[in-house]
Amino acid sequence: MASVSITSVDSVKFLDLCKILKRMSDTKKKADRCNVLLHYLHDLKSKLPKTTDGKNTTLFALLRLLLPKLERERPAYNLKEKSLGSLLVRVLALSKKSPVAKQLLHFRSVSNSQESDFAGVVYFILKYKVGTDAEELTIGQINEALDKIATHAENRSDILDQTFSYILRKLTAEQLKWFLRIILKDMRLGVSDNHILSCFHPDAPEIYKMTNSLSKVCKELEEDESRPTELGLQLNYAVTPMLSERLDVTDVQQYLSPDKTYHIEKKFDGERFQMHMKDGVFKYFSKKGHSESFTKTYGETYKEGLLTPFLKDSFGSDVKNFVIDGEMMGWHKELQSFGSKSMPYNIKKITENSKVRPCFCAFDILYYNDKSLVGPPEHGGLPLDERLPLLDNLFKDIRGVIQHSARRAVHKSSDVLDALNEAMQNDEEGIVVKDTKSYYISSQRKAGWYKIKPEYTEGVLADLDLVIIGADEAADKTHGRANSFVVACAELSSTGRPQRWLSVSHVSNGLTHEERAGLCAELELHWKRTADHPPPEHLVFNERKPDFWIEPDHSVVLQIHATELVRTPKFGTPYTLQFPRVERLRHDKPVNDAMTIDEFKKLIKNHSPVIKLAVNAISEDQLNKTSAKSPRKRQKKVLQVAEQFRTGIQDKVEVISNALAGRRICILSDEEDCSRTELIKIVESHGGQVVANYDESCWCCVSGRCTSAVRACVRARRVDVLRAGWLRALRTAPAPLPPPHPLHALALSPATRLHHAARYDIHADSYTEPADKTTLIMCFEKMDKMPQIHLMPDEMLELDRTLFGGHTPLSFLRPCVIHFVALNDLNVLLAKMYGASVCDANEPSLTHVIVPECIASETLNEMKKKHVDTISFVGMRWLEECFSQAKIINERDYLF
């Protein structure tokens, strides 16, 4: 930025902000990234004039762009990657079948973009297609555009299209990338939100935690030198809620002190909310601090909304204002009972015609009659046992409208166990145990509250052995192509063998990065893209189609735990899994032994919308095991060479083949389900010799997991590096086999590349050997990943002559390089369609200048002086005649 003063932050160029964001993104160290922002903000503040509101207040317009996740003043955009892709295709008037549209709609399949997120892929795709009328928009204009998008995203597609059309014309591709990241609320700067707030002001994170409002943060911190005297809760600003620490019930005796008192509450399965009231005016805040739409739904006064009118007579006459913390539950009007989040309704979006109505279950009070009750004692906070009497006296329970959370005291650890088993019998989510002397510490998870659920205890949930039959593509393919896996159970035929596979759920949690990468590598050769190859009839997906599918015979079994079953039409089974998690890979289990649909149906105890999957009650013996553990005796280990450093097997291996006879092979890494020892046995059983280190005398190296040694060997390309899957599938042979197919290789030595060059094309398709279906599909996929080749005009002319002996009816203008003096959009498009190159008047290879009929002779003569005699100045009629006859017409009758 130039060192001149600015009138307001709204006048700052968005381009300047994008430059800072790019610098932060490109900087390696986090501290350096923060320094870039710190200096920018300091420089910006020094240029701002003194205002009555203070400098920091005016910075709100900038801060809401830097921290879109924390922005609460603007409504939600309700636009994710899929809807944004469709929107861009519509605004750019692209055919859905065009390559650009396919990339926008399936951005995760774009592999040659430097950045894997949606905005980065859009930048890569559209960097030469947007910003045709680029201007330096200001931060104020960007905020206005974002306001329009947020306001009309759901109900006015015409305004949405107009706004994006304007943005695509006025922003460069680089600016568009950051604009889209603001909408998606994922800036990818490598700096946490708290660090960015700290760059703005040291006390900003603490104030945001207590208010959940960026505008309030700016108002509280008017100048850099000022520091707030109190950081307590304020009415009508949401405090970040206190959280509960996760606790296994078998560890209760270790975590709960006998010197403290605790009580137990039911864990509600609703949405965390805060209710604020001041002088009869209510506000409702969600867990993330959003308020506007919820206050409108539930009611700001006793005369409006779905909840507030029913609260009129519940509060005492001495109550002036308060903030209470609790759970917004759905109360079924007919059944007169609570629902859960898994049921087919959204408590945040219910209407007057819904089957449920909102019911607020209060378990804490944070503010009462002008006094903040939160925080440690030095900030005026009160312990829980002093807050609860205030909550108990605040309102009278109204069944199905507003209720106190029931509490009971804990006298011994078995009380906690009994309460959890009772919750399991009642199909409830779990329980919460609270230290009665705990203080309400905003956003803290280890401050005296504990949540205990059945799934936290080993052996309580049912083991579900399901087979992978599909996957969704990952945007970041660092740890494999798949982001989540679709798992299925088998429907058996009369012979007892699977005849169909019914999808049950998709699962992404539970696998480590290494396990995910290994699993993806194992299945890589067998994936089929759904868009290109529709799934066969025996794989039943219903509405939830994955990006890829795989035949179960080539797949693996996953052992999965889930908290409950939820009724849905999206999958092949009538119920899907809620919160599924992979416990382990079951390579030891054949796919035909996986869970069947009959076994799955046994879990459906009734036909309610939600079914809990906790199948085993927890006994007191399990509690006692953790409190009285006997010390384990450590067995004496025999000293020996670690397996990863062994180059041979101590036991004799029977040679069954000569496929690798006389060949030296180095095992670089093993696989998840095939150890180094097993790979060595395979090599020796085929007559090969395993060596510890590779050199030019090695026939090849074998790689399973991707390690630093594998990456170094691939980069060196001194020897062939082959996948472990090739070795495991190696067939027996009486004589040494030729080098394997190139598709099995991660890297090839110069000698092998020369050998393959005479036998395979660059896509690994053999010149002489017939290709099977699997190999052909793999070749096509390799073609798709290769960079596109764009021919120069003279190369395209040569190609036309070679293939067609001249020009095709759609390329007859290929030899022409045309400049239009007066643009005619239709004729420009037609000229390009028929092969002409359209350029400006200074192009050296110019062949034709199209001039309007009414051009002045002085202007024409001036133009002719600037060009050589070989350029033809013709009228628009010459071009239209060329279109009519589908060939280049002699220019003689059309010259100017």
TrEMBL record:
Pfam families: BRCT (PF00533), DNA_ligase_A_C (PF04679), DNA_ligase_A_M (PF01068), DNA_ligase_A_N (PF04675). Residues 830-896 form the BRCT domain. Keywords: ATP-binding, DNA damage, DNA recombination, DNA repair, Ligase, Magnesium, Metal-binding, Nucleotide-binding, Nucleus, Repeat. It catalyses: ATP + (deoxyribonucleotide)n-3'-hydroxyl + 5'-phospho-(deoxyribonucleotide)m = (deoxyribonucleotide)n+m + AMP + diphosphate. Its main location: nucleus. It comes from the Eukaryota. Gene3D superfamilies: BRCT domain, DNA ligase, ATP-dependent, N-terminal domain, DNA ligase/mRNA capping enzyme, Nucleic acid-binding proteins. InterPro entries: Adenylation_DNA_ligase_IV (IPR044125), BRCT_dom (IPR001357), BRCT_dom_sf (IPR036420), DNA_ligase_ATP-dep (IPR000977), DNA_ligase_ATP-dep_C (IPR012309), DNA_ligase_ATP-dep_cent (IPR012310), DNA_ligase_ATP-dep_CS (IPR016059), DNA_ligase_ATP-dep_N (IPR012308). One of its GO terms (biological process) is nucleotide-excision repair, DNA gap filling. GO terms for molecular function: ATP binding; DNA binding; DNA ligase (ATP) activity; metal ion binding. Its cofactor is Mg(2+). Its EC number is 6.5.1.1. SMART domains: BRCT. Signal peptide: none annotated. PANTHER family: DNA LIGASE 4. Belongs to the ATP-dependent DNA ligase family. NCBIfam families: dnl1. This is DNA ligase 4. It comes from Bombyx mori (Silk moth). The lineage of its organism: Eukaryota, Metazoa, Ecdysozoa, Arthropoda, Hexapoda.
